[in-house]
Amino acid sequence: MKRTLAIAVGFLAGGVNAGTSVINSGASMTTGPSLNHYSVFGASANPAMAPLMIPEEESWRITFFPSIAANFEIGDVENFADDVDDLIDLLDDASSTDESATETLDRFNDVLGRIGEEGYIKNSISIHAPITPLYYQSEELNGTFGMDLSINTQIAALILDDVLSLDSTNDTFSTNTSLYMKSGIETRVSFTYGGNYFDDTALSSLGKFYAGAKLNVIRLELSKQVKLLEDFNGEDIEDVISDDYDKYLNSSTNVGLDVGVMWDADWYRLGLTLENLNSPSFEYGELGVDCESITDDNVARNTCEVSRYFISEGRIDAKETHTMHAKMRVDSLLKVSDRWFVSSSIDLAKYDDIVGFENQWLHLATTYETEGWWLPSTRIGYQKNLAGSELSSVMLGFTFFKSFNFDLEYGLESVEVDGSSGPRRLGFSLAFTEKF
């Protein structure tokens, strides 16, 4: 799979200009969606955190420049990387193998099933606009308002496997095995409000109760395509895919509602967030439609016909709806000292991301926030997907000069391709934020 994955990586890295909602930005890449008020993205995860985003003596908190976060995930391809590379050569030229026809068919048909299960790449990028997220604290309205603007993209390249067969008349091999691309470009504008409630009750001596809500206006561009491996013919994937990208694209706008609550005591915090209470839905572009009308483009006709084939096999859907189902997350933070925290969060159920991969994340982290300009704040984190790929990562982050956040993600599971080993997940985040 070296060549297939390599060209897919080239498209994912070079053809994407924005990023995904299943990636945390800034310091939150390491800490996860925790209740740490030092991270300007804290209220992005739980709107009840909004009042803690701003010091009591100030009214505003903003970011300075655009924030960017990105990560990359690859399937466990080391067991068949060479086989897929050889398969592409075989489809181009049947004489590229010294094996007999029977040996060739046995070899590839044995491995194609594993290719379909593990052959994937997923790339996620998230970009927050300059100034955002921003927060304004209003004494008159007894609460804190926030606004955020982000562009989030996910792209996945998967392998749809099929049987390899021999055309003895022409002495050529053929297969419907194809590259399946799914992508989503999300533009999201969020409006947040949070406040402190029941402050005059008997419980106020034990802590403070916060509640908040967030309204998300979401525009989502969804596209999916199927391309026969035979049709690449040495071309770069971006050239093959981009020609038909708009044809399979569907854009729609919807709104989502999040609510959150938090209990803040002297030495701990507890939070609960409900996201997408109204379960907004978005439609993908349709595949396998009116193939007979395509007479002037063999690749486009093949794309349509092979899409129809996998639809008939029940492997993919002609029409597909992405629903952001309602989900619940619980968070906790232990205040070891005024500047040393231990945090955790967990999704209470699994959910699908934009491109259909299952997610259910557990985050654990510890953070030490320094007071001076010269000694960087430090954070260390761990996360694991409890569903889907079940991959895990460690994270390390620093805040330099009280404003520049740099965080790295490194996957604990590795993959070996062509003698080189690397992590199956890798990511980074850069953010310039105002810190107090």
What characteristics describe this protein?
14-stranded antiparallel beta barrel; 24 strands; alpha+beta; two-stranded antiparallel ribbon; 7 helices; 436 residues; single chain; disordered N terminus; Porin
First-last Cα distance: 48 Å
| Biggest β-sheet strands, sense, barrel | 14 strands, antiparallel, barrel
Q: Report the helical percentage.
A: 10-25%
* Sheet with the most strands: spatial strand order: 2-3-5-8-9-10-11-14-15-18-19-20-21-24
Principal-axis shape: elongated
Cα Rg:
24 Å
Strand content: 35-45%
CATH topology: Porin
Q: Residue ranges: pLDDT <50 for 5 or more in a row?
A: 1-21
- Give average pLDDT, whole number: 86
CATH class annotation: Mainly Beta
Number of domains: 1
Count the E strands: 24
Number of helical elements: 7
| CATH architecture group name | Beta Barrel
What structural class is derived from the secondary structure elements?
alpha+beta
